[in-house]
Amino acid sequence: MRRDLIAVAFGLSAPFLLNSAALAAQAPITEDFVKTVAISDMFEIQSGQLAAEKAQNGDVKSFGQEMVDDHSKTSDELKELIKDEEIKVELPAKLDDEHQAKFDKLKGLSGNQFDKTYVQMQVKAHEKAVSLFEAYATAGENDDLKDWAKDTLPTLKEHLEEAQDLNGKVDQVAEAKDTKKSDDRAMGDDNAMAVVDDDAKAKPVQKSNIKYITRQTPTDWTAEALIGRTVENGNGDNLGEINNVIINEKGDVVAVVIGVGGFLGIGEKNVGVPFDDLDFKTAEAMNDRTDTKEEKAEQKTESVAARFDTEHQDIRIVLNTTKEDLEAAPTFAWLDEQDSENAKRERVKQ
């Protein structure tokens, strides 16, 4: 199944704390655990190399190199364990599609935006890593792998603490830069007006038919802000996370692809949901369903006004369905999957 290993590197948006009984009940099978860790190490090494080269913040650069060093070590240890235990698992040779999309996203960023996105990814990655390793260390099938998972946990927890600390520092830098940009922009506007006046005297202004978009409105979202966000239903049940956004050649957002089911990303499948079926609500609107029409209209106005935050963190993404219905929905097929299936059918015909 495509993207069946949404590895340690992405997923849960909050610390995923499980007690021993829950961990024992939901521990992944050895094959899934090994493949998930292998993909995670691969992504951590590649994205860490990118951070060591591209990061603007010196601490983020150092953290990226630390990820390269530490995850190269765990990757080698895992390969040796598999060899010694003769665990029959074919390790992945490249990133899965979800991690490749995340890596490509990082490659397209620069400066503080790269630092911020990379560190946020690392916080989520290590929250999920700690939960996965705790689960296998508690109730995994292979004793040597269980011991290794237990021994590796302290390092992963240290990584999580470092990433959380970096996240706060990068946010502070971003706020300071935004303030400076605003001041510089105001000064630049004054200077630009003087230049325009001089140029207007020298040559005629060329007309253009392009209707430029000059600002983001409260209801405008970026793909970056959507990917990784949790989708819930009206009862507040977690339905899954948005793994990708589908846009057609006309620029219309056709659908979002939601990762559904599984445990810590293992066994997860993708479901394509029309974008128009999503609803965007404030937390207050989610919690109060007994208001009058007038109060609801007022809440709607306040909801739009509340969207003036960088990542729309106060807005909940809602889909009117149950978790069971979404898990029963057909799996979304990507183009290369379709090509692969068509090729299989052709071979069967021959």
Structural description of this entry:
By secondary structure, this protein is of the alpha+beta class. The protein has a 6-stranded mixed beta sheet. The chain has helices at 20-26, 30-54, 58-85, 97-107, 111-139, 143-202, 223-226, 283-287, 293-305, 323-327, 335-349, and strands at residues 230-232, 238-247, 253-260, 269-274, 278-282, 315-319. It is built from 11 helices and 6 strands. It has 2 domains: 20-173, Ferritin, CATH 1.20.1260.10; 223-349, SH3 type barrels, CATH 2.30.30. Residues 1-25 and 304-309 have low confidence and may be disordered. α2 packs parallel to α4 (97-107). A hairpin with an 8-residue loop joins β3 (253-260) and β4 (269-274).
List the helices and strands and how they pair.
Elements (H helix, E strand, L loop, with lengths): L19 H7 L3 H25 L3 H28 L11 H11 L3 H29 L3 H60 L20 H4 L3 E3 L5 E10 L5 E8 L8 E6 L3 E5 H5 L5 H13 L9 E5 L3 H5 L7 H15 L1
Parallel strand pairs: 1-6
Antiparallel strand pairs: 1-2, 2-3, 3-4, 5-6
Helix pairs in contact: 1-5, 2-3, 2-4, 2-5, 3-6, 5-6
